């Protein structure tokens, strides 16, 4: 299973390190004879156009896409850290009429596929002036993640004894004070899991940005890399180099928070 999963990744990395002649050879060569960094050089140093680029260089395409993806992923992740914590706390600790019905409504939105609502979303964003903007992508990312992250944080917060809340309230904390000063520091593993999953989701968005963005000012890296596929030619070397670069931020995020991910997932699954 590991070989099956890692083979595509190996091929992508290999495609960035071998000359174009070997890249298009038949049968494919799984062990490179010559190693070159020309594809990375074209992206970071030379630039250079590509077929179908319309005057846009590969450097502009990849670098602008990376910047847009980082802005959307980091911003939406920080927003979800606040929203998921507060909504999870409300459903885990507070009592109000229709609480269970409202929570079931939120859970029901998880099973709704994203693509059927894109037509309506496109029309709404057009009227609101959110088409081809980073703000629009951030709103979409947060809206898609709210149901799952709320459900996860609710389950995690329910594993924490209510006595901590009571002690904080006796000491003079408000509900928000108890959440941010007492419960969230205890909930770091669960919150870290939410942040990592939210970041990966925002970073990997493709379908919504394809529909809602048109220019380099808002297109993320996932969409920009697909533009290296032309009608008659595919820039496999540049696309592979862009893919390797795009893989690095998610890998770093997972490596930084990996010790919290399993712990948070397991504890949040108890209830």
Descriptive labels:
mainly alpha, 0% strand
Describe this structure in words.
With 271 residues, this protein is mainly alpha-helical. 71% of the residues lie in helices and 0% in strands. It is built from 13 helices and no strands. Helix 4 (58-93) packs parallel to helix 7 (134-157). The model has no long low-confidence stretch (mean pLDDT 83).
Number of helices: 13
Q: What is the total tally of β strands? A: 0
- Overall pLDDT score: 83
Strand coverage percent: under 5%
Anisotropy-based shape = elongated
Q: Between the first and last Cα atoms, what is the distance in angstroms?
A: 31 Å
Radius of gyration: 22 Å
Classify the secondary structure makeup into a structural class.
Answer: mainly alpha
Share of residues in helices: over 70%
- Which ranges are low-confidence, i.e. pLDDT below 50, for 5 or more consecutive residues? none
SSE order, one letter for each helix or strand:
HHHHHHHHHHHHH
| Largest β-sheet summary | none
């Amino acid at each position: 299973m590991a070989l099956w999963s890692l083979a595509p990744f190996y091929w992508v990395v290999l495609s960035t390190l071998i000359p174009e002649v070997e890249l298009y050879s038949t049968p494919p060569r799984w062990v490179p004879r010559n190693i070159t960094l020309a594809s990375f050089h074209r992206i970071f140093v030379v630039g250079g156009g590509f077929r179908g680029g319309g005057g846009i260089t590969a450097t502009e395409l990849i670098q602008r896409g990376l910047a847009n993806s980082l802005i959307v992923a980091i911003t939406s992740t920080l927003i979800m850290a606040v929203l998921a914590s507060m909504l999870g706390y409300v459903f885990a600790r507070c009592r109000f009429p229709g609480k269970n019905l409202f929570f079931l409504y939120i859970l029901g939105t998880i099973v709704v596929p994203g693509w059927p609502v894109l037509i309506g979303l496109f029309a709404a964003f057009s009227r609101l002036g959110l088409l081809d903007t980073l703000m629009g992508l951030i709103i979409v990312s947060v809206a898609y993640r709210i149901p799952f992250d709320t459900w996860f944080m609710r389950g995690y917060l329910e594993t924490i004894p209510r006595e901590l809340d009571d002690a904080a309230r006796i000491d003079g904390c408000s509900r928000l004070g108890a959440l941010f000063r007492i419960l969230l520091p205890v909930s770091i593993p669960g919150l870290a899991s939410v942040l990592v999953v939210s970041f990966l989701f925002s970073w990997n968005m493709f379908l919504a940005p394809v529909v809602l963005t048109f220019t380099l000012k808002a297109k993320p890296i996932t969409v920009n890399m697909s533009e290296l596929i032309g009608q008659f030619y595919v820039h496999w070397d540049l696309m592979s180099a862009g893919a390797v670069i795009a893989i690095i931020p998610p890998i770093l995020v997972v490596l930084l928070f990996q010790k919290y991910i399993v712990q948070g997932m397991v504890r949040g699954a108890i209830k």
